[in-house]
Amino acid sequence: MLTSSKPELELARLTTRQQLAVALRVLEQNGVADNTAGHVTLREPGTNTWWSNPWNYEWASIRASDLIRLDANGQVLEGHTDPSRFLDVHFLIYEARPEINCVVHNHPFYTCLYSSLDQPLLMLDQQSCLFFEDYVIYNEYKGLVQGSDNSRAVVEALGSKRTALLKTHGLVTAAEELDAAVFQAVYLERTARLSWEASQHPAFKPEEGQMNVEVARRTRDAFRARKPPVIQLNWEGWARYVLRQTPDVLD
Ligand SMILES: [Zn+2]
């Protein structure tokens, strides 16, 4: 439980396992959830091992002790629960891009809905700009993302980008840090919702309603440079809320 008035100090003391448990609750509270589906992996710093959620637990009630630690082959090293069988895409991303430390996959409602249009995300607010020229649409749903062939196709489509919008499926988002991966997942869902609702309005004109291209690019770069530190501040705010409301997340 937080005891300091400076949650960033307390957050820094959390174990990697506890940080991921908090992140799963944050994702669930922000609509990046689909019952017990979805999986997140977070690297234990300095190792080739990752913490992940079990595949049959609701993220709304997840606790740190429910999480499992895996090696690069998906073998369980620590924990008493069962890992998802669909983690190939995570390990292929980590293999291809050593700078990545956290990957999120799930099926948020509006992400699934908007992806069915096979259209670019609309740049309708500043957080949408996070994805400007930094996402791909993967439009070849081939069934559950299981097995190396299907997963490898997703990873190849992702390339050097951070986010993939999976048509009629959901999202994959990858980042160097946990806070950025969570921010991307939460705001992809919001951007998809904005894009869907705007695209349904008869008065909406994409060429007039969207952010100026140069402004969108500068805004994206500011997010990436963390100037101002919007991503960190959001993470601290979300995490503070979770820790105050449900301190059992750390158990
Ligand atoms: Zn999925």
List the helices and strands and how they pair.
Elements: H1 7-13, H2 16-29, E1 39-43, E2 49-52, E3 68-71, E4 76-78, H3 88-96, E5 102-106, H4 109-115, E6 135-138, H5 148-158, E7 163-166, E8 170-175, H6 178-199, H7 206-209, H8 213-225, H9 230-245
Helix pairs in contact: 2-6, 2-9, 3-5, 4-6, 6-9
Bound molecules: zinc ion.
Zinc ion binds next to loops.
What's the rounded overall pLDDT mean? 92
Bound compounds, each kind once, are: zinc ion
Name the structural class. Answer: alpha+beta
Main β-sheet: number of strands, strand sense, barrel status? 8 strands, mixed
- Indicate the CATH architecture: 3-Layer(aba) Sandwich
- Principal-axis shape equals globular
> Count of helices?
9
What are the low-pLDDT stretches, counting only 5+ consecutive residues below 50?
A: none
What would CATH call the homologous superfamily?
Class II aldolase/adducin N-terminal domain
CATH topology: L-fuculose-1-phosphate Aldolase
Q: Helicity range of the residues?
A: 40-55%
As a whole number of angstroms, the C-alpha radius of gyration is 18 Å
Tell me the count of domains: 1
Strand order across the biggest sheet? 4-3-2-1-5-8-7-6
